[in-house]
User: Fold these one by one.
Assistant:
Number 1:
Amino acid sequence: MDIRDIAAKSGYGVGTVSRAINGQPNVSERARERILEVMAELGYEPNVNARYLKMRTQTPVAVFVTGVGNRLFDDVIGPLQAELVREGEDIVVTYLEDGSNVARAAAEYQLARHPKGMVFLGGDPECFRTSFQEVGAPAVLVTSSAEELALPNLSSVTIDNEAAARDAVAHLCERGHRRIGVVGGSRDGGQISSLRLRGAEDALRAHGIELDYERDYEPCDFIEAGGFEAAGRLLDRAPDLTAVFALGDVVAFGALRAICDRGLTVPGDVSLVGFDDTSLSQYSVPRITTIRQNAELLGRRAARVILDGMGGASATHELVPYELVERESVRTV
Amino acid sequence: MDIRDIAAKSGYGVGTVSRAINGQPNVSERARERILEVMAELGYEPNVNARYLKMRTQTPVAVFVTGVGNRLFDDVIGPLQAELVREGEDIVVTYLEDGSNVARAAAEYQLARHPKGMVFLGGDPECFRTSFQEVGAPAVLVTSSAEELALPNLSSVTIDNEAAARDAVAHLCERGHRRIGVVGGSRDGGQISSLRLRGAEDALRAHGIELDYERDYEPCDFIEAGGFEAAGRLLDRAPDLTAVFALGDVVAFGALRAICDRGLTVPGDVSLVGFDDTSLSQYSVPRITTIRQNAELLGRRAARVILDGMGGASATHELVPYELVERESVRTV
DNA sequence: CGAAGGGTTGGAAACGTTTCCAATTGGCTT
DNA sequence: AAGCCAATTGGAAACGTTTCCAACCCTTCG
């Protein structure tokens, strides 16, 4: 079934039918009604391939997710999609195995599909530097800042990771902790790792403590298993630690397990603070004190940025508020 | 840039170029080499819109996920995608707000995009009955069985939910529990709820206990918050319960929290068994005894079914093995 | 009354592929 | 030398839209 079938059956020309379908002007009320009626009757659906071929754009909005299993991203997608569909846009999600090739994948996708917009959940700004020079569509990087890249179409929405990590660790220091371990990310890892690590370092230094990376830090991927193993190694190496700061909730969750496995309790023996405020930290036993990234806000803002970008707005770099939410995993010593 | 540019520059016709690009026969080695060379030189990428318009097919494989936040599905997507890309297929994921409209969404998508294959993560077979009559592409339903629907192109891969639930509850009964509560799903909910509920009922009956739905059952959505609230209500109503069977790990996780909130311990005061074996039950404190659904196997099998279906195979209904994994949340009374 | 102009309309051209068919080539066979 | 056949090739047609332009019909105005 074709737009021509609709034209024939409704008694109008294809041009008029096309205009009617797309809500364009220069169609009489009479014609519009008749055409819509015939469309409904025949159950006609426009062919997106033909449409996008002609319009030279394609897939509504492409979302790239790197790091399957990052709970925060799962929580961002819902609101993001909701906001976009409310404006009549659709999204299509692609999972990327490895965060490092995100820009390459995106570039290929863009070349091939010409999406209207692109959203990156995770992925390090660095990798956009080389291979993402000419973005055709508005793009937004969520949870990392792309400000210093200053690419014309690449926006970002994120919290101030450094300040948040500083607050998290200061929280521990203020409660009397002096032997504090850090787990997650990696020293020469992406922006997020670096920023959070630097924030932690700063807070410690402000309290007269120098972070000994050799002894009190253990890197790992942002998955439960990573946190479990890294915290295990850290605890075995430095049993006098009274607190652990995990660079992400999933890491904290794994760390919690590792702590318990050694017969220690949280917060009795070691205090724990996470980062992200996913459902993991809300429902774990004990509940974990963490930095709240407002997933809903992140999702909605990202959607807005894309929408505005499609409307011609230039790239922006938003900082959304964060919050330290105190729960039961930190003890005053 | 066009296929015609490649044709012109390489000195061959568009037909030959097209054949060379698609690895079809009837292209001399000489021509193929030259054409590939020119393509690389010009950085040419075929336009998928034009291609799919002509081929009358589109998006590689469409994946529909219903119920954001279901950890099991997150774990299935990775292996699914891995298997598919290994065969040169790509996937595109769409999140559906509400499980009930999955068939409608799929039908629309199919009409508009003509995907090569479709996979449904979650979604109840019932909703496919009416609106999914003529599937053009092979489709597979994961975690529910579509066997009784007997649709020509709709396959399914799932575990035997009823038997697994029976095993889970029997496990509790064999350890001396007589007052067992059940949380999650709903009585007139989808296939999964029904099957697991029936399995629980059967196991109880085999041990001389009749499940009192009014008193010992509390329905809820498959999210942490649901489990938390439902288990809370259940516990308040029937404080003499010594064990709880949750219809999903996320529900169990929420329930664990509710139990602890009431000053009770797991497994000291109440034993708990979950269902799915997501990372939640592996890392929680205590670790939760649960039914393992092998996410990787589910994902890989689903991919296989789609691949075979594209090769012309007809619908199959696979049952993959499950396993009761004993951890620390069940006590013998 | 003729011209001008705004709102509609129809249809051809174009978007970038794949595919079909006819034409060409070159090596064998008879 | 002529005839065949297979392998290769070129190019037109088609896929289903959108858009541009010309044509048309009314009003309205000078």
Number 2:
Amino acid sequence: MLSLDFLNNEYEDTKSPSKKAEEYIAIDILTGNLRPGQRIVEQDLCEKFSMSRTPVREILSRLAAGGLIELVPNRGAFVVGITERDVDDIFYMKTLLYPQCVKWAIERITEEEYSMLEETFSFMEFYTATEDMEKMQKINRGFEAIIYNACHNAEMEAALLKYDFIIRYANLDIKYPLNYLPTVLEEHRAIFDAFRARKPEQGAEAAQIHAFRSMMRRK
Amino acid sequence: MLSLDFLNNEYEDTKSPSKKAEEYIAIDILTGNLRPGQRIVEQDLCEKFSMSRTPVREILSRLAAGGLIELVPNRGAFVVGITERDVDDIFYMKTLLYPQCVKWAIERITEEEYSMLEETFSFMEFYTATEDMEKMQKINRGFEAIIYNACHNAEMEAALLKYDFIIRYANLDIKYPLNYLPTVLEEHRAIFDAFRARKPEQGAEAAQIHAFRSMMRRK
DNA sequence: TACACATAGATTGTATACAATTTTAACATT
DNA sequence: AATGTTAAAATTGTATACAATCTATGTGTA
């Protein structure tokens, strides 16, 4: 899967009902809609998402593998909560991993991937002026997703995608400063410049700065 | 779950049949027994592990969530391979995360956890002389597992456990140097000393050294 | 009242049945 | 021989049925 589909508004619709339900539950957990320790009854999910227990149990298996719920034998699924400190920690883990991801990505990126990154960055430049926060967040996520993929390491990619997902939904009440979009654009420009110059160390440095500042903007 | 059960030889038997089958398949993938791209047919697993398709599909859901297989809609499960470079990368990711894990663990460890770590370390000292590689590896894993848990961050713990699992099974043909066990003991001692002295930075430093040398020992 | 126990109901674990889709293999056509 | 078509078989996706286990409620006893 290598495309700019994430820019499309109907992108979400391409996901399977099962995947959508899984994401829905995950978001409910991260936003606190489902409380830590709360029991999730399979039958309730069957009714909520209009499916039988078989796919529901597969969803619960995946969520448990991801750590958002705990599956206790013969007793069912229980919500595993996420604390503010957990989110802090995850921001910090991103500052550790993301620079190395960018370094590898600059070393390993294909021509095709680079073209996508270039095109996405030009979209970012163009739309930053619009101050459409939602659209820009989507493009920013797309920009980083291309980099995560371009590092060509599945563990790194999965880890960073997961951290972003947690940060995105467990961090909803954050107040962005007025100059947020142009600031992030400049941080991303520094990263993209390193890709353009093919300088891995420079990219790691720029990534470190971006991740660290993102963590700080939360405060 | 807070105990020294991992030292028990029958520890593996406490796992559910479903969990054992999942681990069995995961090991088959990491050791190369199942080849990258190879299709996994549900019915075959049903026969192999003597269970019906429902639990088999739950196992496949979990493995897919962990990235070891890919689930293609209507076409089934396909093995995702792991390359030598992937293993190199994962060693490197461990050098990034483990020092921070130790730092957090020293800051956050409970009295009970510390007692377990202390007891485990004394076992390590005692058994290193026996040159029983298998037993020592198990104790070493237990020592690190306690630290992973004591950092009190589920993402960090899950990440490091996963890396260790991959390293353990995708790295089977490694040749250990003669003084491997005493060398590792001393590296672990440096980490444990930092716990004893409650010095997070010193622990991070010792952890960094241990992770880096482990990576190098692979060469 | 406090507690132990028994029982009914609810819930999870597993097997099986059926529907939808894909794969295969045979056959016909060029 | 190579390609396209079609039907049968195999496989996956989903629903449902039954077994095993847990939970909740009510009853009896101290």
